[in-house]
Design a protein that fits this description.
Blueprint lengths: L1 H38 L3 H26 L4 H21 L3 H29 L3 H22 L7 H22 L17 H6 L3 H28 L5 H21 L1 H7 L1 H21 L5 H11 L2 H11 L6 H30 L1 H4 L2 H19 L8
Helix pairs in contact: 1-2, 1-4, 1-5, 1-6, 1-8, 2-4, 2-14, 3-4, 3-6, 4-5, 4-14, 5-9, 5-10, 8-9, 8-13, 8-14, 8-16, 9-12, 11-12, 11-13, 11-16, 13-14
Length: 388
């Protein structure tokens, strides 16, 4: 009975925290037009808001992945949640461009580390791990879709920004209290036996996984952060309408993670990754190619891409020993974050130089390279565990 209650508490924590962190991440793109107006920002300055958030990803994943395999998991999560909550508090209390940049590092980095930790600990706590990872990431999609669709309708100024972050801060407080009721499995004591970053990167799968994750980040995060601006400034759509299509894309991701979850354990992680990513990329590329007339196809591509990220996190773990999966996952994802940083560092300037029509082509190219990388990985590298 106690074990059942523990699993229920763990599931509740994972559900709430995934929804909160997802909503926080998605608000950046929704409010980007308002940041431009409020702070009189150029496209490159607006791009720095996005870029600096991925610098936070890099710091949290590289340091956090290393630390998470070496300390008490509950205390580690509590520390990351405190930093994440402090960033939300600064959003509620301040209206300053430079403070916004600083807080972006901690809110984005913290939320990514928290959601990655959920994906890592799920196989240690629940049976049918692929199904539970998909369900928790389905909830993450709910958070993204609701925040983009609901808050996007009221994103007409910084007052809405303050209010949205206050709600998230209160919900994060509930999760923080709930965290201390959990019984999480501890890391093994033999720290010296764990591989160093150099040893992890010598694994033949590592570099390919870095590129695969990096291309996925550009394809998904690029859409999350720039579709609202692209739609309103280039395609002639209103900000609410652009945010609506974006919410439909993540709505597809949300529905897909729930509907396809039971199939993954049955068909195999890698097999599902190949089939679903190919279907999603075809719709994604076609949707962007058709411009304004392709927005519904672009939105529908979310169904195909729905399982890609959670299954990529699980896939990384299949190439490494369980005791080092946190370190390996953190290292690979943190290096892949350089793709996000590089993309957002130059995308704003590219828009000013070449226009949205040409700059946006980076996204479908990245999506195609994602599929290509998965095929190469499947053909050339054998996993250390069963990875159908």
């Amino acid at each position: 009975m106690e074990k059942k209650k523990s699993k229920i508490s763990a599931a509740l924590f994972c559900v709430l925290v995934m929804m909160i962190t997802a909503a926080s991440d998605s608000l950046r793109g929704v409010f980007l037009p308002q940041f431009k107006n409020a702070f009189s920002l150029s496209e490159p300055q607006a791009g720095r808001i996005i870029m600096i958030s991925y610098v936070g990803n890099l710091l949290f994943l590289s340091l956090g992945g290393y630390i998470s395999d070496r300390v008490n998991r509950k205390r580690f999560l509590a520390g990351v949640m405190l930093l994440f909550s402090a960033a939300l508090l600064s959003y509620v209390l301040t209206e300053n461009y430079y403070l916004l940049l600083a807080a972006m590092m901690f809110s984005m980095g913290g939320s990514t580390m928290i959601s990655t930790s959920v994906n890592i600990i799920t196989p240690l706590v629940f049976a049918s791990p692929a199904m539970f990872v998909s369900i928790f990431n389905f909830v993450q999609g709910v958070g993204i879709t609701l925040s983009q669709n609901v808050i996007g309708r009221f994103a007409d100024g910084l007052k809405a920004w303050h209010t949205a972050n206050l709600v998230l801060l209160l919900a994060a407080g509930v999760c923080f209290v709930l965290l201390f009721t959990l019984d999480l499995p501890e890391t093994s004591a033999d720290v010296s036996a764990r591989p160093t970053p150099v040893q992890i990167l010598k694994n033949p799968a590592s570099i390919l996984l870095v590129f695969i994750c990096g291309f996925y980040f550009v394809a998904e995060h690029g859409l999350m952060n720039w579709l609202t601006s692209y739609g309103s400034e280039h395609l002639g759509l209103s900000v609410p309408r652009s945010a609506f299509y974006l919410s439909m894309f993540f709505g597809g991701i949300t529905v897909g993670r729930l509907v396809f979850a039971p199939l993954i354990d049955r068909l195999g992680v890698f097999r599902c990754l190949l089939v679903w990513s190919f279907a999603g990329v075809v719709l994604y590329v076609t949707g962007i190619a058709l411009g304004k007339n392709g927005m519904w196809l672009l939105a529908a591509s979310g169904l195909g891409l729905s399982i890609v990220y959670p299954m990529l996190v699980m896939l990384i773990g299949r190439y490494f020993d369980t005791s080092s999966s946190g370190s390996a996952t953190g290292l690979i994802l943190s290096i892949a974050t350089f793709f996000d940083i590089g993309f957002n560092a130059f995308f704003g300037s590219l828009v000013e130089y070449a226009g949205y029509a040409k700059a946006i082509l980076i996204l479908p190219v990245s999506a195609v390279l994602l599929c290509t990388g998965l095929v190469i990985l499947k053909i050339t590298v054998k996993a250390s565990k069963d990875i159908r």
